[in-house]
Every structure is written in structure tokens, then in C-alpha cells.
Design goal:
Mean pLDDT is about 80; it is low at about 15-30. With about 190 residues, the protein is α/β, with parallel strands linked by helices. A 7-stranded mixed beta sheet has the order 2-1-5-4-3-6-7. The termini are far apart. It has helices at about 1-25, 55-60, 80, 85-95, 110-120, 135-140, 170-185, and strands at about 45-50, 50-55, 70-75, 100-110, 130, 150-155, 160-165.
Length: about 190
């Protein structure tokens, strides 16, 4: 029994180290876009309060309140990925970030009608979804689809201040809170 416990603890340690190394590996990756201006393509559609808007996204994506934005890109063709919206909803409801930040979610869905029919569920605290049918967010910002790293903290000028998902990497929650306070202090 003692040997089994030692083996399990060792395995858990090795797995947690690999996860941390993977995060560190990405942080030094050339795909990191911290410090770059995040672009919002005009080709996306806004789905807000059950209404689909086909107008230019810039009208809806302007940061009127000058609050930092946490923007997360979610693969809408994948049911497991869409489940992350429930986790985001729970994080928002917990008040972890208070009202210091605006949340925006980009749903990559090659067939938006299919996504809206099969995966969309209205959530009380997520009122706006940005639907991208052509992966234009990836193209214009030169990023790859990696769920762990397709969440961004943007300042009032849409400059990426932090990258990585606090839903996947809970240790990023404190980093996000600190950076949001730092951004708010500048405003």
C-alpha cells in the first residue's frame, strides 16, 4: 500500500510538472501576442439577446466604458468546447472580477445556424456572442486555435496585456485580477 501511494504521488507530481512546463513553453512561444493590438474583423456577426446583428462589428465592440476586456475565443463546432461558456458564466457570477471588466466571447462556428440550433443556450450573464464563421479572428491576429491560450486581456486601446485562459489555468485568475487593477489605475 505504501509503495502504491508513493507511485501515485510521484505520477501526480510528474503530470503537474508537465502541465506547468507546457504553459511555460507557450509563454515563450513566438505566437504570443502580448503587447500587440488585437484586431476585430468586420466579417463577424454579433448575437446579442437572441438577435443576430449583421452590421460591422466595430459598432458593438467599441469599448465605450473604457473598461478592460477579457475576450475568449471558443470553438463552436465542438460541444465540449462550448461547455466552457458555463464555466465562464460561473466565474462571472462569482464576482471574481467585479464590474471592472467587460467579457466578450467569440464563437468560431463554421455553420452558425447549426451552432445556434444545437449548442447555443442563453446564459444570464453572457448577453453577447461574436460569431466568426471564417476563423477571421485567427487570421487577422495571426494566432492558432489553442483553447488554453485563446483568452486575452485587452486594455482600452485593445492592446493585449495578458494571454491564457483562467478557466483552464486557475493560477491565471490572480494574474488577471492584478493586471486589471493595473490597467484601471492607468485610466
Amino acid at each position: 500500500m505504501y509503495r502504491l501511494s508513493i507511485i501515485l504521488v510521484t505520477l501526480l507530481f510528474l503530470v503537474s510538472c508537465n502541465i506547468s512546463k507546457e504553459r511555460e513553453k507557450h509563454i515563450t512561444n513566438e505566437n504570443l501576442i502580448i503587447g500587440k493590438v488585437f484586431s476585430f474583423p468586420d466579417s463577424v456577426e454579433i448575437f446579442e439577446n437572441d438577435i443576430l446583428y449583421l452590421e460591422s462589428s466595430n459598432k458593438f465592440l467599441m469599448n465605450v466604458n473604457s473598461k478592460p476586456i477579457i475576450l475568449s475565443i471558443i470553438w463552436g463546432d465542438c460541444a465540449v468546447c462550448v461547455e466552457k461558456l458555463y464555466e465562464w458564466s460561473s466565474l462571472i457570477s462569482s464576482g471574481t472580477f467585479g464590474d471592472k471588466v467587460v467579457f466578450q466571447f467569440v464563437i468560431l462556428a463554421h455553420d452558425k445556424k447549426y451552432y445556434l440550433r444545437t449548442h447555443y443556450v442563453p446564459l444570464d450573464n453572457i448577453h453577447r456572442l461574436i460569431i466568426d464563421s471564417n476563423e477571421d479572428f485567427f487570421k487577422v491576429n495571426n494566432i492558432k486555435n489553442n483553447p488554453g491560450y485563446n483568452t486575452f486581456l485587452l486594455d482600452e486601446n485593445r492592446v493585449v496585456q495578458l494571454q491564457g485562459s483562467p478557466i483552464i489555468f486557475d493560477e491565471l485568475i490572480e494574474d488577471y485580477k492584478d493586471k486589471i487593477d493595473e490597467i484601471k489605475f492607468k485610466i
